Amino acid sequence: MTQASARSLDVPADATIPSRHPKAPGVGERIPPHNPACRGCADVPGGIHMESWVDDDRGEGGDPGVGVAVRSRMAVTDDMQGGPGLIHGGYLMAAFDECLGSVAPLVTRSCVTARLETDFRAPVPVGTTLWLRARLDGVLRRKYFVSAEARLDSEDGPLVGTARALFVQVDLQHFLRHGRAEDLEAIGASAEQIRAARG
Ligand SMILES: CCCCCCCC(=O)SCCNC(=O)CCNC(=O)[C@H](O)C(C)(C)COP(=O)(O)OP(=O)(O)OC[C@H]1O[C@@H](n2cnc3c(N)ncnc32)[C@H](O)[C@@H]1OP(=O)(O)O
């Protein structure tokens, strides 16, 4: 296998689609912030204030509950401006990262973005609302392949962007080893745990 194909975002033929974890929120339920300081999903100054719900991915056969999906909403505010009156592309990518990143934790523990590919299909004016929908396309070992689309002002509004991503499952050590100590302590990690993780 070449290096390029090993790192592709194409879903491998032997990937599977596991069910939602029994303790995960159910279809239609709001997904709570994974970190009270997250600039993606928590209600903090400077954040994008994304709201997300578990969606029902009916899959090609139309069977309810066979897949795992997330629906998200984000108001496009003045402070997200790039071109005059238009969203900065980085904010659209942040919106995709947050929506896509909410899918795998419905199945497993924490995952982080390893790769994110975005197609900007149409300009997004400030003052509109973005509606995003992401679904789990396949899982292989620690790798979670997901894809999403973004629409303007309603769930079936004009398509403004699409994205594919790979999330890699990590354990608590990832955060203990790399995160800023005061932020880890604010969510309950002890100084001892942090020291131990860093060796
Ligand atoms: C709590 C939830 C938070 C969610 C917040 C929203 C999401 C985010 O924005 S997370 C923040 C941004 N992301 C990051 O900071 C991640 C930084 N990167 C890393 O920490 C590491 O590179 C990490 C964890 C992704 C992978 O490292 P590591 O654990 O050593 O795994 P590694 O063995 O290299 O890779 C595992 C598999 O993924 C594949 N892979 C890793 N990176 C990539 C990539 N960029 N492209 C394609 N494939 C990749 C590898 O090829 C390997 O595949 P295989 O199983 O077939 O051999």
From TrEMBL:
User: Where does the record say this protein resides?
Assistant: Cell projection, Ruffle membrane; Cytoplasm; Membrane
Name the membrane topology term.
Peripheral membrane protein
Major location, coarse class? membrane
Which regions form coiled coils? none
Query: Which EC numbers does the record give?
Result: 3.1.2.2
Residue ranges of domain Thioesterase in the record: 85-153
Enzymatic reactions: (9Z)-octadecenoyl-CoA + H2O = (9Z)-octadecenoate + CoA + H(+); hexadecanoyl-CoA + H2O = hexadecanoate + CoA + H(+); tetradecanoyl-CoA + H2O = tetradecanoate + CoA + H(+); decanoyl-CoA + H2O = decanoate + CoA + H(+)
Region annotation (Disordered) ranges:
1-32
Does Transcription count among this protein's keywords?
no
From the Swiss-Prot or TrEMBL record, give the protein name: Acyl-coenzyme A thioesterase THEM4
